[in-house]
Amino acid sequence: MHDAARILQLIVNGAASGCIYGLIALGFVLIYKATEMVNFAQGDVMMLGGFAAFTLIAHFHLPYWVGGILAIVITAALGYALDALIIRRVIGQPQFAVVMLTLGLGFIFRAGAGIAWGYDSVGFETPFTNKTIDIGGLILGEDSVSIIAGTVLLCGVLYLFFSRTRVGVAMQAASQNQLAAYYMGIPVRTIFSLIWAISAGVACLAGILLSPISMIDVNMGSLGIKAFAAAVIGGFGSIPGSVIGGVIVGIVEQFAGYKLPAGFQEVSSNIVLLLMLFVRPQGLFAERMGKRV
Q1: C-alpha 202: how far from its chain's center?
Q2: Helices and strands of the chain, counted as H and E runs
């Protein structure tokens, strides 16, 4: 019974970590589906969102929910401005130029965050900090449960947004055929900037949900590497696949840390990625007519 409870706890903790990877990976996928660009600064956008929430909640003493929503809005505005002012200038250039640009932006974000907030880890109180739930002897942290619940809720909201709203349908149309969408009167450039805004807002939410279990620091953007692996595992063109890929990476990490020698936990996501590239390079849930990475 003890082993069963331990396994369940590892699965829940792994799913919570995986949901964070999945949310960051979701940003990768949204941008790639629309623009065929890969934003390697996505993890650093999450870091900026986390610091924005820290500033609003810890420094300005706003309630957690108010500060979190404002941080998401601010980070989404940053994402919109990034596309409108910077990324749009390299449309049509080779993919290597986009990769180098977003990598460079990531370094700038880290340096700017270090100047603004310092290089020490910081955190803020949440309604889930240091609280547990007892389910028949299985002790779960409310922080882990909140991450899973928040991810499920966000996926539901995004599904309704993309399938039931005019803006969401326009985003899908623009991602499938930019020229046809333009001729149908859809403002493609604005739509793309909105997609960058949504991706940045999702990344900020990941940083806020992560804060109860991990401190916020300038290097937390490195989680973007694991999120990229999650996006590839799930199928780079698949939105639900990105979340499922993140959960797979998170659970594998937990079991690697529990069963294998020290050091394997950190590289387990790369091992799973390599195995996936050998067995099914298009990913688990690649769309038949979608884009491939």
Answers
A1: 6
A2: 11, 2
Token pair, residue 143, equals 């922080």
In this structure, whether the domain defined by 2-279 belongs to CATH 1.10.10 is answered with no
**Which among 15, 22, 23, 20 has a CA at the least distance from the CA of 199?**
23
Instruction: Give the least confident one: 66-75, 108-117, 227-236, 257-266.
Output: 257-266
Q: Would you say the pTM of this structure is higher than 0.85?
A: yes
8, 87, 193, 259 from 84: Cα distances, Å = 45, 7, 6, 47
Within 8 A by CB and 6+ apart from 151, the residues are: 19, 22, 23, 209, 243
Q: Which amino acid is at 252?
A: V
Domain locations in the chain as residue ranges: 2-279
Distance between CA 178 and CA 199 in Å, rounded? 19
Instruction: Calculate Rg over the CA atoms of the chain.
Output: 19
**Within 10 Å of residue 104's Cβ, how many Cβ atoms?**
12
pLDDT in tens, 7-55: 888 898 899 999 999 999 999 999 988 888 889 999 999 999 999 999 9
The alpha carbon of 277 is separated from its chain's Cα centroid by a whole number of angstroms, namely 21
C-alpha to C-alpha distance for 254 and 265, rounded to whole angstroms:
7
